[in-house]
Amino acid sequence: MTVALGQSDIIDLENWGIPDLDLQRPGWDVPARENWQIESRFRQTSVRAKTSTLFSRFNRHYLSVRMHRRKKELPEKVIDLTFVEPQPREIKDYHYKLWFAAACLLILPAAIFALVPLSWWWLIAPVGAALVLVAVALRRHRHCFEFLALNSDVVLFTIDAWPSDDIKRNAFIEAMCASIVLGQRQLPEGKGRIPRAVSEMRRLSAEGVITKEQYEAIKRNWFAL
After folding, report:
1. pTM reported for the whole predicted model
2. Where are the domains of the chain?
3. Residue with more model confidence, 108 or 86
4. Which of 83, 92, 141, 218 is the most exposed place for a label (fewest CB within 10 A)?
């Protein structure tokens, strides 16, 4: 696969080693672990999902995401924040339809019961159904911040928005957004950033952070610029 940067510049995105683009200059490869300088950490624990996630921001514009699920450690994600969208996408899904249905199951039978002298036993079914809907809504509710790969709709990592974490979470997100902006200041303008972005997404695909299909979709987005 190739992409043209100008009339005479052709980049083979499957074969790196183009001196003019200086793709191997310090700062573009992920630093060796012994050279990591941790700048901030943030941990989230979900009892519902049985997960514990540690986010570590290091070397100005890198992020490590380590997750344990049911005491089992999952593969670590190491992401160059340079290639992440500058602002996260906030997702709020409280399943209001389920809450509305539960309210109807409580209010309508109660109104009928108040008007018609019926045995209270017949209320058990609608009340039980309402409680089930409430439990499902609580279990499925979702409020989080999704961080997307640059120039795409692919989610690289997610931070939950729990009220108890407000201050620490917001401070960490602000620090990450600043790191993203800092990293992107180093990118060349226009199509000159395509090789570096595609190279980073290829690394993430090889390490299992994103799927091959997601990598191909991101690559197509970059080629369309």
Report:
1. 0.75
2. 2-93+141-223, 96-139
3. 86
4. 92
